[in-house]
UniProtKB/TrEMBL annotation:
Domain spans labelled Flagellar motor switch protein FliN-like C-terminal: 254-322
Keyword Cell membrane recorded: yes
UniProt feature coiled coil, ranges: none
NCBIfam families found in the cross-reference section: fliM_switch
Protein name as catalogued: Flagellar motor switch protein FliM
Recorded GO CC terms: bacterial-type flagellum basal body; plasma membrane
GO molecular function, one term: cytoskeletal motor activity
GO-annotated biological processes: bacterial-type flagellum-dependent swarming motility; positive chemotaxis
CDD domains associated with the record: FliM
Chief location: other
Entry-linked InterPro entries: CheC-like_sf (IPR028976), Flag_FliM (IPR001689), FliN-like_C (IPR001543), SpoA-like_sf (IPR036429)
Length: 331
């Protein structure tokens, strides 16, 4: 450890204290020679370096982004998930920190040893269930009275979410997460010994108007075989490689063969419900499109080009006459 360098003001203050008798030089020398003792708790043995913890944080930040997209799509509501903290603590301490009644999902992650645990706060778990059942995302606290249908729906939702964990972990190991247990009482759960070191990743989660935490508990035994891959040195060695020209060609060919839906809009009209209900055969609806104005060509429901109608080889067709400014022509 490098010696601390004092400023001139600190040196003057020290000399002044010594000369005035406020400080004893002999006592200072004695304190310096006294061995410094730091208390070490063997129950809280730190088995992961700060570098490895940062590696896990990076991976689960990506997992949080994937989960945000997944739940937004599945639940058709606002979802926001982000990493709040990454800590290593004894398993017993983690169990004591979570509610007595909560949603616990235990997954095996072959080919890695051991199992991981995902704890969903009841507030967000029931908000998710309410959305799946067509509700507004309200939450209730009745975890101890889960029905078989509720348990099945939750299990299916959380099991499919683990595809995102598989993708996020792909840089570490090719895992295949499988749901093994669904539990609501942590006292009935014993994955590892109480003193075993586990990494706990806490995710701030908002689903609609409900918020809570998702806690991911990963025992040391699960990460033991892939710990070297968590270091910055490994990430620098396996950084992004330059894309080869043939890879660009393959990507271009795949994009060129992609199918898009196009439609020419002849016009629009607005009528009252009463008029709509009274429509009958041979009634005429007047559109707001003039025959002298070009039509709009929609590409995947986005306006892209101005066109004029006509025929090509006895088939109805349109001819592109201009692009729509701001229509993202290059997309």
């Amino acid at each position: 450890m490098a010696d601390e360098v004092l400023s001139q003001n600190e040196i003057d203050a020290l000399l002044s204290a010594l000369s005035s008798g406020e400080m004893d030089a002999n006592q200072l020398e004695h304190d310096q020679q006294t061995k410094k003792i730091r208390v070490y708790d063997f129950k809280r043995a730190l088995r992961f370096s700060k570098d490895q913890i940062r590696g896990l944080a990076r991976i689960h930040e990506n997992f949080a982004r994937l989960l945000t997209t997944y739940f937004s799509t599945q639940l058709r509501t606002y979802a926001q998930i982000s990493v709040a903290s990454v800590d290593q603590i004894p398993y017993e301490e983690f169990i004591r920190s979570i509610p007595n009644m909560t949603i616990l999902n235990i997954y095996s992650v072959p080919p890695l040893d051991g199992r991981i645990l995902l704890e969903f706060n009841p507030n967000i778990a029931y908000a998710m269930l309410d959305r799946v059942l067509g509700g507004k995302g309200n939450t209730v606290n009745k975890i101890e009275n889960l029905t078989e249908i509720e348990t099945l729906l939750m299990s299916q939702l959380f099991e499919k979410a683990m595809d995102n964990l598989k993708e996020a972990w792909s840089s570490l190991a090719e895992i295949d997460p499988m749901l093994e247990e669904f539990e609501v009482n942590p006292q009935f759960l014993q994955m590892v010994s109480p003193n075993e070191t586990v990494v706990v990743i806490s995710l701030n989660t908002t689903i609609g108007e409900s918020s809570g935490m998702i806690n991911i508990c990963i025992p040391h035994v699960v990460l033991e075989s892939i710990i070297p891959k968590l270091s910055v040195h490994y990430w620098m060695q396996t950084g992004s490689k330059e894309t080869k020209p043939e890879e660009y060609d393959n990507l271009t060919k795949n994009i060129e063969t992609a199918k898009v839906k196009i439609s020419a809009v002849l016009g629009n009209a607005s009528i009252q419900i009463n008029d709509f209900l009274d429509l009958s055969e041979n009634d005429v609806i007047q559109l707001d499109q003039s025959i002298h104005d070009p039509l709009v060509l929609m590409v995947d429901e986005a306006p892209k080009f101005y066109v004029q109608p006509g025929k090509s080889k006895k088939k109805i067709a349109v001819q592109v006459i201009d692009d729509i400014k701001g229509g993202n022509k290059d997309e």
